[in-house]
């Protein structure tokens, strides 16, 4: 403010304010930079700072996790999103296909894996099989932001190798000084100068939840920290649901308020008004003046009113008529914030057709694929530790194991088949893709949750069995109307 403005403000504050407002308007019109960086009237309350991810996350990480867990317990909408990821990222599970090049070794490892995946063999607590462990890990990652999978070595079960799930709350963030002075401990995790995890400090609890001793230190090679890292300076997890927590709560609160309103309007109540006028100086015998503070309306309620009082009802309008449109709009935004279509987030297919549902499924699949890629890294590490345990216990008898361990680690995961929106159209599209080279037989077999070699073996077995019993199974398998009798 210059001298002239100061003088005008002393004489007429209103005139000075008008001059300032018009000057700011002129500056906004002449602005040549970024509108998003402007601190004019529209952005006056938009304050943001640049700081490392850990500085931002550490003060709010626990709050976000607590609120996400609260919605997990109480919100059907929250559980709809979480369930969508569990169904589509892991679903019915993955089949292991070992590819060492030796059929006998492949069969032995695959058979041992199926046995180890039982709850008494893979879980240190003996309560979850491998599929349940992976689904729990996905759920905790969406809600809590991550989970710790500890490799345990015990004397029980088929192999000494087992898994233990540990929630991120159990990281002891009170540990400040590591044994190695060159390292540092942040949020219970010890890092070297390159921000590479060296070890984890895990709190130890009694059955009633109280800390009973000093935290236990696990080397990083024995811990799998399953979480998403979005910034180079991020060292700990943040709930995947953080961007949409407020929207989920807003939808819940709106629906709850609307339900209360409709319940009140559905109540049939009777209010009786006395016609006797209020008295001055004396009280009628038996008069019972009533207080209404904290009273509620209940179905079939009959209530006397004090003399001279009447009932005036308040009927809010607008919510019921706009509720469906408002909730749909919020669900659209919620789904897009998690990379999902509206149909997946809301389970509402009333406005979709084959084309829109197919396009939505394609986009959703790309979202799930990112999560699958991260999950595959976790499963690969678990499988490699499993194979090493097989060799250490003597079940995998290979003298050249350490020289060729990558060969014995060679494998792939076959996902359970996905369901089709229109099986006939999908089958025709696959036939065209196969004939034009856009897909291979192996691709189609994998989409059906099978290994292509196994599928070929099954077809051959069916055809041979049909020939033995005088049945032409080619008509069934390949849809042939008649077998060709012309010489090749």
Percent of sequence in beta strands: 5-15%
Order of adjacent strands in the largest pleated sheet: 4-5-6-7
The geometry reads as: extended
The count of DSSP E runs of length 2 or more, i.e. the number of strands, is 11
Cα distance spanning the termini = 98 Å
Biggest beta-sheet profile: 4 strands, antiparallel
Whole-number average pLDDT? 83
What's the tally of helices? 17
Helicity range of the residues?
A: 40-55%
Low-confidence spans: pLDDT under 50, at least 5 residues?
481-488
* Helix-strand category: alpha+beta
| Rg from alpha-carbon coordinates | 33 Å
Order of helices and strands: HHHHHEHHHEEEEEEEHEEHHHHEHHHH
Quick tags:
488 residues; alpha+beta; three-stranded antiparallel sheet; extended; disordered C terminus
């Amino acid at each position: 403010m210059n001298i002239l403005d100061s003088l005008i403000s002393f004489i007429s504050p209103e005139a000075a304010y008008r001059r300032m407002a018009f000057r700011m308007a002129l500056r906004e019109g002449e602005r040549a930079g970024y509108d998003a960086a402007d601190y004019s009237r529209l952005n006056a309350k938009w304050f943001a700072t640049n700081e490392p991810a850990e500085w931002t996350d550490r003060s709010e990480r626990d709050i976000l996790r607590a609120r996400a867990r609260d919605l997990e317990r109480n919100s059907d909408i929250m559980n709809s999103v979480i369930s969508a990821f569990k169904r589509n990222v892991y679903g019915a599970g993955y089949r292991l296909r070992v590819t060492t090049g030796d059929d006998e070794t492949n069969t032995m490892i695959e058979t041992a894996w199926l046995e180890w995946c039982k709850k008494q063999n893979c879980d240190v607590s003996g309560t979850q099989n491998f599929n349940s462990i992976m689904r729990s890990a996905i759920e905790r990652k969406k809600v809590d932001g991550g989970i710790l999978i500890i490799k345990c070595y015990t004397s029980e079960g088929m192999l000494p190798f087992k898994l233990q799930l540990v929630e991120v709350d159990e990281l002891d963030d009170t540990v400040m000084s590591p044994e190695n002075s060159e390292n540092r401990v942040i949020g219970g995790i010890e890092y070297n100068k390159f921000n590479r995890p060296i070890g984890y400090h895990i709190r130890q609890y009694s059955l009633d939840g109280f800390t009973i001793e000093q935290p236990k230190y696990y080397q990083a090679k024995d811990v799998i920290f399953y979480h998403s890292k979005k910034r180079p300076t991020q060292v700990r997890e943040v709930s995947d649901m953080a961007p949409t927590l407020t929207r989920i709560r807003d939808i819940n609160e709106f629906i709850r308020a609307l339900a209360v309103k409709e319940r009140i309007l559905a109540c049939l109540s009777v209010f009786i008004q006395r016609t006797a006028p209020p008295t001055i100086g004396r009280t009628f015998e038996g008069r019972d003046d009533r207080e209404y503070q904290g009273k509620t309306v209940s179905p079939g309620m009959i209530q006397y009113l004090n003399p001279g009082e009447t009932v005036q009802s308040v009927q809010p309008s607008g919510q019921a008529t706009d509720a469906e449109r408002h909730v749909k709009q919020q669900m659209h935004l919620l789904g897009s914030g998690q990379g999902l279509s509206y149909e997946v987030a809301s389970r509402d297919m009333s406005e979709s057709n084959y084309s829109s549902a197919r396009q939505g499924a394609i986009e959703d699949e790309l979202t799930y694929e990112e999560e699958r890629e991260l999950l595959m890294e976790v499963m690969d590490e678990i499988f490699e530790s499993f194979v090493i345990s097989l060799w250490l216990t003597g079940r995998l008898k290979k003298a050249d194991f350490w020289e060729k361990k990558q060969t014995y680690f060679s494998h792939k995961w076959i996902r359970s088949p996905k369901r089709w929106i229109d099986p006939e159209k999908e089958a025709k599209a696959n036939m065209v893709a196969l004939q034009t080279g856009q897909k291979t037989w192996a691709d189609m077999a994998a989409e059906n949750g099978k290994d292509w070699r196994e599928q070929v073996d099954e077809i051959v077995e069916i055809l041979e069995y049909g020939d033995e019993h005088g049945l032409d199974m080619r008509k069934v398998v390949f849809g042939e109307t008649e077998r060709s009798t012309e010489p090749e």
